[in-house]
Amino acid sequence: MSTASFTSNFFGTGCFWKVESRISTVKKQNEGKMFVKCAVNTKTQKPEKAVRIGVLGASGYTGSEDLPDMVAIKDTNFSDVDAVFCCLPHGTTQEIIKALPRSLKIVDLSADFRLRDISEYEEWYGQAHRAPDLQKEVVYGLTEVLREEIKSARLVANPGCYPTSIQLPLVPLIKANLIEYRNIIIDAKSGVSGAGRGAKEANLYTEIAEGIYSYGITRHRHVPEIEQGLSDAANSKITVSFTPHLMPMIRGMQSTIYLEMAPGVTIEDLYQQLKISYEDEEFVVLLERGVVPRTHNVRGSNYCFINVFPDRIPGRAIITSVIDNLVKGASGQALQNLNVMMGYPENTGLLYQPLFP
Amino acid sequence: MSTASFTSNFFGTGCFWKVESRISTVKKQNEGKMFVKCAVNTKTQKPEKAVRIGVLGASGYTGSEDLPDMVAIKDTNFSDVDAVFCCLPHGTTQEIIKALPRSLKIVDLSADFRLRDISEYEEWYGQAHRAPDLQKEVVYGLTEVLREEIKSARLVANPGCYPTSIQLPLVPLIKANLIEYRNIIIDAKSGVSGAGRGAKEANLYTEIAEGIYSYGITRHRHVPEIEQGLSDAANSKITVSFTPHLMPMIRGMQSTIYLEMAPGVTIEDLYQQLKISYEDEEFVVLLERGVVPRTHNVRGSNYCFINVFPDRIPGRAIITSVIDNLVKGASGQALQNLNVMMGYPENTGLLYQPLFP
Amino acid sequence: MSTASFTSNFFGTGCFWKVESRISTVKKQNEGKMFVKCAVNTKTQKPEKAVRIGVLGASGYTGSEDLPDMVAIKDTNFSDVDAVFCCLPHGTTQEIIKALPRSLKIVDLSADFRLRDISEYEEWYGQAHRAPDLQKEVVYGLTEVLREEIKSARLVANPGCYPTSIQLPLVPLIKANLIEYRNIIIDAKSGVSGAGRGAKEANLYTEIAEGIYSYGITRHRHVPEIEQGLSDAANSKITVSFTPHLMPMIRGMQSTIYLEMAPGVTIEDLYQQLKISYEDEEFVVLLERGVVPRTHNVRGSNYCFINVFPDRIPGRAIITSVIDNLVKGASGQALQNLNVMMGYPENTGLLYQPLFP
Amino acid sequence: MSTASFTSNFFGTGCFWKVESRISTVKKQNEGKMFVKCAVNTKTQKPEKAVRIGVLGASGYTGSEDLPDMVAIKDTNFSDVDAVFCCLPHGTTQEIIKALPRSLKIVDLSADFRLRDISEYEEWYGQAHRAPDLQKEVVYGLTEVLREEIKSARLVANPGCYPTSIQLPLVPLIKANLIEYRNIIIDAKSGVSGAGRGAKEANLYTEIAEGIYSYGITRHRHVPEIEQGLSDAANSKITVSFTPHLMPMIRGMQSTIYLEMAPGVTIEDLYQQLKISYEDEEFVVLLERGVVPRTHNVRGSNYCFINVFPDRIPGRAIITSVIDNLVKGASGQALQNLNVMMGYPENTGLLYQPLFP
């Protein structure tokens, strides 16, 4: 497997997740060997000069086969590196990033820098924030919404999967004052891969196949991230109802969002606003009126497909939004963000089409 | 396979669904042979005398193996028959039942008699009601809610699967004035078997496995049935938001219900009301506080498991309710209703426990 | 959940497996509390007097809900108990059974007593046999093949799932000298539940869904058990080729067996022999000629469905055999064996029909 | 979706299958509109000049969205076209290809030209061959085996999925006289997508999920194709035992092959021969000794992963081979063949990596 094909594989198929989930078991074996160099796929895409990218937390994934040039962080000559993806577990990332040279551009895939309010971080993650100064310069990496800020960012906090699928349709509607801020109800359904590769009974085939259940009702850690994004758009505190469900699907995520339109607003108004917001975007696709987004449509790709439907109750609307939780919901958006930060074409390495059937 | 084991198989595993779905292709081959006799399992349960039950629409299911005594309706001596399950397709049932002797007790599994308002039937099913007089004597077969009426009924309309999972938790709360009637939002997730055995591209393995999508948004035919049941409980017209989702699961159904509590009402009030309503019921089970119902808990059984959770938004509650769509959502409840109508123990033939894993 | 429904649930759904798999984690918490009393379902079946059955290794499964009367082995008054199912892990069972009163009838579901040759046990399980004297009195519990011996047995070793599905079709053909002993090739496919509920990465939904692979090629621990049974039938050492595959299925198992017929033997000869062998059996079903056994046909039931097909290569035959690995392949056959040992109707508690769809 | 991304989507994800399976329903609506032009992805790969490729039988796939320039065959100016993929149903292709200009290079994905012996075609497909003269110039498109012949071919018959997975490991071993020709036993397991998108009851989710069964025992239409390839390699008629199984998997295929080694041959000899045969190949990968091929390893990619294992029976070997039935087993190999025919880099458009998880 050549280096050239490595990058696209790495980002296109969401292996950040695998990297991340392996960390806990791997750490003991490879203590201190948590750094990997790799080159951008220079065959299929032509950035003007080669960029040297490190992946923090990639150690041990599939051994030397995929990731040949592993070195320990402490042995790394960071002058060789232009940018870093940080794939370390939640709670361990703040201190490590704090110690990195300021010359590096960083996309962090953990949750450690997603919440601007460090007291919220402490409340939801149960530990003190260890890099509050660094937090101030973080840009939240919801690419289509914050592209301009990402362009000049040094440290980007890559969004969670649920928050990505929810904010993409809601932020433009809130900004345009088209929907009420109260009683936004989100019923989300996720594939299992978001839970990582850790060996937990809850994620066994026998526990997941042929069934569904709600989990983390009102208490899922993505709640404050969702509310932060929506509140920013509203310039007003928004509290949402958010209920995720775990279902028998390796990858994929749908958020079904129930909301009240502002007085006088119609479904067509919502549709037009989303159309205007995303018609020039490559990865966020508003479907034709009446066409239902399906997770199959986006599997293995960086797309987010959305649509808006009239509810049976007058004045209400239903939005459905689908992504691949491992791509647009994780590594795909991370690469998209890095492309923006480095000034490369935003779709570099992301041209993979959905895999269907 | 003895007659004795037939009944339990028939009802325990939801084969009504298979029966029903086979009708369209079978009809041509077996025109006029749509009647089957079978005996209740007298070994495991002891009704005082044997009851003779017919199944209208069972022809051709698995041929002579399971259903040996098939005869055409026109050749049937109905004096031999005490009761009938009617498993014919929607739209064909009204005329057939109209022609049956009035001495028969009937449980109809189609949707043809579920809507009391025949203009609603015409609106949602696109054809005139052909037995409006008969409609007036129909009792809606939500057993736990309408048991007394079912006891003396001659013709019971067996509820749909979604309406069963939704009305069981909501009716007692509405009757007790504990929840607001407005903005009841129902996000439902169903396995594929509810769609029948018809060969449709939409239900192919390749179209269903590893994905999810909403369907019939606001337009699913179970909407008027749900609203009829809730409005009856409220003595006031209730309009609901109902969005079903199709997911990769053979059997099973979860309804996640988002609602506003009446002023001053707490989650504990809802819990207590459900406890009082169902503590003496065998098949509707309110779980311990905080325990999440899972479709796995009820697979292959006649149970409905429910629970109520506080929402993050003050004053709101979340209810989840799970059933096996082919058992409590179809043939299991049909048998439960017949047991009530015949004066037998209500759980006769329904002692099957969930199949897990 | 009443005691009456407990037994059928327990055996009908293969929860022995769950019991067994929980042992390792449970043991620490409940050291010494590994005994449970339960009563046979006296409602649906009527043994002449109540039998008191213990389950060794059931502690902690779902706590008091299912198994209310847990007591430690050391505190058990075994004069209260007539029979015991032993569901302890491989390697721990020999010593425990050795210490039990000889008045007890025992069905052991572990592999600890399946191999008559204790040196084979040591070779495949990597430890010395700790109860070689006890081994001599063990009867191997392949019910249809060894029923007479089981009737008078005190200690029955319940067969493994693969060996059950393979020996049932092959033993009668070998005994009748209809097939060659050389080059018996078995390609088996199993659902995941056989691997237990232990939290192993290999059994995660993401690792199992939508894929297949061979495992334990030539080295699976069921090999010596299969060869022992076939060699016994042949009065001659038989070595088989056995390759199991793990596939995305919770429960179910198919063995596809490729063999050479003895000179002059025809497919019809094989068919007739199997017909004679099993026509009076309730749980082993030879299908009509040409009908393909499917794991769906036996899911959740104690049946084994088999059939025999001509191969394209002259003189060869193909046999397929399907069981539910958790029922006929584990707890169902265990109960069947106990019924035989106690003189009860052999199908007591086993009348569950397959769950399809 | 730009034209540039079209080709990679088209071939990388096996949509030929979808194209093919849609034909029957589409034909009536689009009678005569069965031709599509498309351009090779000139961004990611750089053939020296643009090649104009037609897809016969692509009409109606997803309408104008993907395939904008559809024209009827009769209206096509073939002087605009360099090459054609023919994706028409079995039995209809011979006449259509006969009518095409001889200047076109053609890869046919149907079975119509795979069997060199037209009497075999008639026997297995039940109709006379309608282009026997054309058959004589056909090259069988098993790329790694017949690359030199494909280079100069005008009409290539693209192999079936089962034959691809079986011939790739066996042909080199047969040619090197390392295995016996008798009693080659192939137990194959396939995902459902190979059956196409036709709405058949057998392929419903409810019929496929959570189960397995053998189908087409000894009579599958891929048998003569397999035997033709192996017999060619042997210069001697080979008859195989071939039993396919249908399992719950959208895409993916494993062939488990049981064989006898020639006298004196060892497993290491087989391994070395496969190593020599494929070490310079990009898409056929012999795994490290002892590593088990998994369909997950190749999902969504053009790879074939193989390995060889010692059997427990002396002198025997077990080979497992996995492919994605829609890629290396269909459209991927078709594109690989066209690349060879046109003199392009063989991996053009095929750099997609496996999608896992």
TrEMBL record, chains A, B, C, D:
Its EC number is 1.2.1.38. The keyword NADP applies. This is Probable N-acetyl-gamma-glutamyl-phosphate reductase, chloroplastic. It catalyses: N-acetyl-L-glutamate 5-semialdehyde + phosphate + NADP(+) = N-acetyl-L-glutamyl 5-phosphate + NADPH + H(+). Keywords: Amino-acid biosynthesis, Arginine biosynthesis, NADP, Oxidoreductase. GO terms for molecular function: N-acetyl-gamma-glutamyl-phosphate reductase activity; NAD binding; NADP+ binding. InterPro entries: AGPR (IPR050085), AGPR_AS (IPR023013), AGPR_dimerisation_dom (IPR058924), AGPR_type-1 (IPR000706), NAD(P)-bd_dom_sf (IPR036291), Semialdehyde_DH_NAD-bd (IPR000534). Residues 52-153 form the Semialdehyde dehydrogenase NAD-binding domain. The keyword Phosphoprotein does not apply. HAMAP family: ArgC_type1 (MF_00150). Belongs to the NAGSA dehydrogenase family. Type 1 subfamily. The active site is at residue 161. It comes from Quercus rubra (Northern red oak).
